[in-house]
Amino acid sequence: MSDINPAETLEQLQQLQKESGDLKSQLAILRISEPIFSPDAENQSQSLSKRTSDASAIDNPTPASLEADLTHYKELFSKLRFSYVEQVTKEKFLRAIVGDPPLVVGHNENVELETQLAEVKAELKASKEEVRMMIEEMEKTGRDLANRYNNVELQMTQLSTLPESIENLESTIAELRAKQASDAEASSSQNLPLPATLSLVAEREAELAALNRQLAAVQNALPRKTREAEAMERELGALNDGSQRRSPRLERLRGKARGRK
Hints:
One of its GO terms (cellular component) is kinetochore. The protein is mainly α. The chain has helices at residues 6-20, 28-37, 39-48, 63-98, 107-186, 194-260. It is elongated and about 180 Å long.
């Protein structure tokens, strides 16, 4: 496996980013929002109804602005649906009463229509539940992609500083190797071949054995020397006591000698 060069990898990523443009502009949620933020769509929506929010006029869309737009279009769709149902109902009613012959709906037909309406409502509810689950899955996937994108950005930032760190480490390794070589030259005894090393070890062991013998002899002579020192201390104490007793007598003799003179 060939070694990976961080500098080349970073250069390839930067080249890919330049070719594909800003990664944030390639996100699917922003591509979905582009028709909403296009001038044609904005003019059409303003021609239908005066908006109370200008969230779609933002140059850089954010999740908050997209959510505001989504809420606005939901409300607008609800109003348009109510108007459509109202207009279609009026049209069908007028056509039924002015038709030739007039369309008369009986009780049985109403029961059948109510049954069909209940089935359609059940299908619509199931579709809404499916859509809700799909939205939850999309939100989960979006969060996962956002976390992965943040990790990629963090790794790219770390990768941009990695070549400099590698150069510093390589220079540090070179300095340590040079220092190790100089230390090896200074201490030639650490670089001896095996026979010379064994001979040096034997010499050091002989010196150590001689020192151990001298130490044992000194330890054996230590009690005798201690006793001699104690005897000398006792003799010195006796001499001190004798000199202290002779001192008054010498003073009296010296006084008598001065009186005779």
